Amino acid sequence: MSTFNEELCVPIKSDSDIVEARQKGRALAIQLGFSGSDPTVIAAAISEVARNIVNHATRGEIVLSGIHESSRLGIQVLARDEGPGIADIEQAMQYGYSSGKGMGVGLPGAKWLMDEFDIKSQVGKGTSVTMRKWVR
What we know:
CATH superfamily: Histidine kinase-like ATPase, C-terminal domain
Largest sheet: 5 strands, antiparallel
Number of strands: 5
Strand content: 25-35%
Radius of gyration: 14 Å
């Protein structure tokens, strides 16, 4: 598996950064050959994980990259922060669970929108979410 040379890193601290990450993700998806509703779906998943950074960690980053694996081409979205971390990932991944005042669709929603989803978190150290979607 290889990533393309270009990685786009968007620092996330505020709502306007979420919009920027969405726009850059959507543009990269189109550039990589995604079509139909896929660029919008990818932007929605980026929005969910970026919103979690703003709401729970105050700051972090979204790293966007094109990926190539065997004959597949796709996009990888890495969301990482040094926030409080998630004590119970299994609980956080349940649809409807919210640690704040949200609707509890963020992480499970992002997972549902993408083809691959991996989350790692350490209490007191932060959280890292890696998501991938493949061009159909």
